[in-house]
Amino acid sequence: MLNDTMEAGYSANRQSVKWLAMPMHDWTRVDAGIFHDFHNSWITHLQERLNAGLLPSTFYALGELRTDEIVSDMLTPSANEVQISQEALDDLEYYLSKQRTVVIHHATGDRVVALIEIVSPANKHTQQTLEQFADKVIAALHDGIHVLIIDPFPPKANDPHGIHGYIWHRLLAGSYEAPREQPLTLVSYAAGHPLRAYVEPLQVAADLAAMPLFLTRGHYINVPLEETYLETWAGVPGRWRRVIEGNAASAGSGDPRTT
């Protein structure tokens, strides 16, 4: 069932959202390949939940590759990145080329109405890849496509105010600074005029709230992020669960991250 638009902003409407107790993990403890596997699995579980009755019958979800938007030189190292090996750069470019998005279509004409994007380390690796990600989101919003973004990574030099702060600035919509104690971001954009953003900042170990995904300008569904995260987490190998949870000593020898 669709919900009415939240006029007062997302944070003021938490009573309509089901809160559960699955913490967001610290994904900076593992390399991009481990998160890439989790990322695509989470996309699959979100797609399954949406198509299993969460979406109205006139909509459907697909997990789609956006390979047409990958530029081959996006990961060319800058002067201050020369210490990063070409092998690591090739890996990040590969992960970008295989990164999937949940794409919501309307059955009439199969037109795209909404996207769910999960930010990866590769999206923030350089100024170029960050701009590429923002360009995709901004183009979608300008085309009237609603967007839900899940960013499980803290701000970096390229996005000091977080992914929403960066996109909001690019849209000339105002300024936003991610709370220092809550550097991770969930944000849902309702395309149209005026553009609306419903922001839920969070930190590592915080509960994941359901987030609104707009299907039309006036209606949305709540996406069960916690439940689908839990389903995805169940498939993470124990060796990497221990690293992510901070028990790296029992997971194996050496630094688990690729730098």
Describe this structure in words.
This protein has six helices and eleven strands. The chain has helices at 32-54, 86-98, 127-142, 162-170, 225-233, 238-244, and strands at 3-4, 19-23, 59-65, 100-106, 112-118, 146-151, 184-190, 196-202, 207-209, 211-216, 219-223. The radius of gyration is 18 Å and the shape is globular. Mean pLDDT is 81; it is low at 1-21, 67-87 and 249-259. By secondary structure, the chain is an alpha+beta fold. The strands form three sheets. Strands 3-4-5-6-7-8 form a six-stranded mixed β-sheet, with helices on both faces. It has a three-stranded antiparallel β-sheet with strand order 1-11-10, covered by helices on one side. Helices cover 30% and strands 24% of the residues. Helix 3 (127-142) links the parallel strand 5 and strand 6 (146-151).
Distance between the termini: 45 Å
The sequence of SSEs as H and E is EEHEHEEHEHEEEEEHH
Form type: globular
Number of strands: 11
Number of H/I helices = 6
The largest sheet, given as strand count, sense and whether it forms a barrel, is: 6 strands, mixed
Q: State the secondary-structure class.
A: alpha+beta
If you average the pLDDT, what whole number results?
81
Strand portion: 15-25%
As a percent range, the share of helical residues equals 25-40%
Side by side, the strands of the main sheet go 3-4-5-6-7-8
As a whole number of angstroms, the C-alpha radius of gyration is 18 Å
Taking pLDDT < 50 over at least 5 consecutive residues as the criterion, the unreliable ranges are 1-21, 67-87, 249-259
